[in-house]
From TrEMBL:
It holds the Pfam family COXG. It comes from the Bacteria. This is SRPBCC family protein. InterPro entries: CO_DH_gsu, START-like_dom_sf. Gene3D superfamilies: 3.30.530.20.
Amino acid sequence: MPSSTFERDIQVGSPADRCWAVLTDVERVAGWVTIADEVREHEYLAKYTVVLADQFGPFSVYADIDVDVTDVEEHRFIRFTGKGKDRKGGSSIRVEATMALEEQPSGTTIAVSGKYSVLGTIATMGSSTVRQKADGILDEFFTAASEELAAA
């Protein structure tokens, strides 16, 4: 079962309240990540769904993910879980993550940490391949966040 933890942070020039407004706009943020598709907000800061669609080696992945916010302190941090299954191959995906914002004199530090696990067909690709895919998703997120939130 490929699973791993992740932790990254960046410093941006925007104040924490602007960062929060942008980073909790799920449709906007989903547009930063190429595998995110069909994003729906069911209840703001509480419940979302997203379809993850991608080619993963020889496998096509189309996974329905339910995202539940488990803890939130507005403008400071949000903690959530995402879990779901691939429609075609039965692989399951689970993510637990926290995003924290810390106001700095020159902007905001955005820190994201968590863990994920993958079971089923996708897992047969091996943990290093799954980790590379996860790292690529984080790269997309942080690159877009850096660009969008660079200046106040």
